[in-house]
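Thread: assembly with ligand

MN 10:42: here's the input set. Chains plus the small molecule as SMILES. Want everything predicted jointly, not piecewise.
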Amino acid sequence: MITVIKRILLQDLRLKSNYIYFLIMPVSLMVILGLVLQSVFATQLDATVNPVHVQYVVKDAQQAKLVKQLVTKTKVAHLDFTPRASTKVAQAYVRNHANTAAVTIEQAHIQVATAKNLNDYQNALLKGTLAELAQTLGLVKTAIHYQRPIVTVKSAELVTVNRAQVQRSATSFQYYALAMMGMFMLYFAEIGLDMFGKARRQQTLARELLTPISKGQLLNATVAGHLLYGLLVIAVLMGITAGLFQMPWLRALPFAFANFASLMALFLVLGLALETVAAQLGEGVMQIVIQLVAFLGGGYFPTSTTMMAFSPLGWVMGPLRSALWTSNPLNWSGVWLSLSVTAGLLGLINVVMRRREVF
Amino acid sequence: MTTGLVVTGLTKKFGTQVAVDNVSFTVAPGTVLGLLGPNGAGKSTTINMITGLLNKTSGRVELFGENLTPTNTAIRRRFGVVPQELAIFDDLSAAENVRYFGGLYGLRGTALKTAVTRALAVVDLTDHANQRPATFSGGMQRRLNIAMAIVHQPDLLFMDEPTVGIDPQSRNYILTAIEKMRANGMTVVYTSHYMEEVERLADNIVIIDHGQVIAHGTEAELVNLVTDAKQVTIVVNHADQLELAAITAIAGVQQATLHEQNLQLVLDVASNPLNQVLMTLIDQGVAVDSIDQPKLDLETVFLNLTGRNLRD
Ligand SMILES: Nc1ncnc2c1ncn2[C@@H]1O[C@H](COP(=O)(O)OP(=O)(O)OP(=O)(O)O)[C@@H](O)[C@H]1O
Ligand SMILES: [Mg+2]
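BT 11:07: finished. Tokens for the full assembly:
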């Protein structure tokens, strides 16, 4: 088994077309698409921004009056404020409504407890307004109670945003880095399609089957070798995109890796499965599948969640985006779904291949 | 253990076509069997069934006393196969190709290293170990094809036309290598449609045509099979002193004619009276200049058995 895996890895590393498919093409597409669509991304966000409904609670009764004055006076576009009796009430509301945030104000300290479905534009708006509010409160307090000279306070120290709850921003480069990495995972289907084709043409497959290795072992070791190569490709691409586009992989490193790996495994095995059942049709069918999956899954431009649900790329891209740029809990469903389908297909291939005289 | 390879009633049908038809033969350990037959005779199919690459329609194969079945993977360590078509990874170097197959046969570490070096040396590719086979000549590729089959030092080696389409030098090198391997006790099954090769190498020969064994034996046995008489031409001096009647009278001499200095004889193979003929000639005072005994080769045998030539 190890012998086979090593041989496959060596061959994959030596194959020049692999470098084009899995290194040069994805990285150059990331750069090109990122550059071209930079402006589109910016305006799109501005156009689709929804108002944020802030549910705020002020602990100190005296301060509450002041805050109320301040928030009614400051008319900020896309922001409105509603006072709530307690943090609990505010949070309950936020839980059930989109585009909302629960804000607790205690002295000059402001805490954003829950924020739901906020995009980066909304978030920036909220953060800026709250920082201003905190600064004003701090100045007023200092001036009234301590009669100290007025000092400017850094807003960052005043506003503690509960980081786990807030969406962060993605540049167009980062969007396409993620999308292209996902999309080129689909091209592992090409390796799957020709997994035994070359060995068959070179007659080496028959030769391998004359050695003590069994058909099943040879099959699974070959798949394992290519999978290992795939993992290597993912690691390298993650490294490159982290360097070039500051991809924030570290926010969810094992999760991101697992998502790409499951997608890669699925398409590798899908290619092999297609070759097993319909060697001639395989290539054409695969191209169509790849394009469809790429389109639906948001490989070319952002698509709706419904469309993404129909594409394995979407199964993985959705959770990945939310893992990297929102605070939502990690959603492993894409990984499990892909891996289950992969395992099922692999089992099927094993059954079919073992029955064949020469595979 | 005295049995080598025992093949009994091997048959392969591709649909309605019977490619191999009830083939049986045995190969004693340490001997070379030549499997001779024209294109499409069923040589490769026979070997592929024996080695388990193809399922047999029926028949039985026993190797060193063990039943050779597709699920018996352990026995595969004891034989090696040089396939008819080149079977080489073109993106691996010669040494890597050999090493890979050594690994598949379970060799590891230093044992693998020495086995690779040895196999490459046997086929004289040591100097090209780290080159890609794509840069090799046809003969070198053939030799690599062989090295990959002997890296695990099998007891039995199947070679399916290992010298097809190569230069005489490489061919001679390969034949010599096979002779060396046999001297070291290896059993070899060798298919070919070149009789010179089979005549040179084989202890026993199986002639196969249209999937059937049409003859089986040593070269001499096969030659005797098609003819019970042989022709001998003796060139004599003093032909005028020769008495033809005395020669014809010798038992086993079927025919004797004299053309100038050439005494042409047809002799019984079984009683072989050549000695007696020579003694009689000397008695008569006829000096013998030279004896020419045209060799009856397998080509003739095949022609006699099938009415066709081995090669067109
Ligand atoms: N997979 C197959 N399907 C159908 N027929 C086959 C198959 N393999 C071989 N045959 C047929 O079986 C017969 C024997 O073929 P085989 O390859 O064993 O001949 P051979 O003696 O090795 O010939 P050659 O000297 O050309 O290598 C041929 O008529 C060939 O057409
Ligand atoms: Mg053949």
